[in-house]
Design goal:
The protein has about 200 residues and is mainly α. It has helices at about 20-30, 35-55, 60-75, 85-120, 125-145, 145-160, 165-170, 175-195; strands at about 5-10, 15-20. Strands 1-2 form a two-stranded antiparallel sheet.
Length: about 200
């Protein structure tokens, strides 16, 4: 297959879109072609960044994680078995690298929350506080989840992936992913109720 291989995907009503052939792109990545890495970034960075933002809850850390995924891709691609799509593989790299960043994001949000409470006497603070209450409660509740449940929740409930897709990404059986989502939902409801949000 040549580097310029393409595939045509038929869309409803006879429209077609030409896209680079995924297998050819993987082969080029495995041969360490610099242009292939740039092409993979152009095709998949948006999806990886969207996942990272939802997973970490922090835009700056999400950007860092995105860069880390693509910096490590040339080494990681050698182990790609093609059992899933390249995008799924990239998100699984993000999950693996993002686990320690989740804890850092939680600590950072806790520090920001403490700072916000110290500023409660400032003019307009009450209005700001009301606007941020729900956001803080959701972020804090998500921070309390074990990382595996948080990953499953973000993949299935926020990104609306199937349990099967999520299972491919995290390398766990599908029933395990479903159980993690169920447990995450229950814990999030309880955490929000503790914070007075129903």
């Amino acid at each position: 297959m040549s580097a310029s291989s393409t595939a045509v995907t038929l869309l409803p009503f006879g429209r077609a879109v030409v896209r680079p052939d995924a297998d050819a792109l993987v082969e080029r990545l495995q041969r360490a072609e610099p242009a292939a890495l740039a092409e993979a970034y152009d095709l998949h960075a948006g999806a990886v960044l969207a996942f990272a933002r939802r997973f970490l809850g922090d835009a700056a850390l999400a950007e860092d994680l995105l860069q880390e995924v693509f910096v490590t891709l040339p080494a990681a691609i050698r182990g790609f078995q093609r059992a899933s799509s390249l995008r799924t593989f990239l998100v699984s790299i993000a999950v693996n690298h993002g686990r320690h960043l989740v804890r850092a994001a939680a600590r950072r949000r806790a520090a920001m929350d403490r700072f916000a409470h110290e500023q409660d006497g400032a003019p307009g603070a009450a209005d700001r506080e009301r606007q941020l209450d729900l956001t803080r409660a959701l972020a804090a509740s998500l921070d309390e989840l074990p990382v595996d449940q948080r990953v499953a929740f973000v993949l299935c409930e926020v990104e609306e992936r199937t349990a099967r897709e999520a299972a491919e990404i995290v390398g766990a059986p599908e029933p395990t992913v479903r159980t993690r989502v169920f447990q995450a939902k229950r814990k999030l409801r309880e955490a929000l109720e503790r914070r007075g949000i129903r």
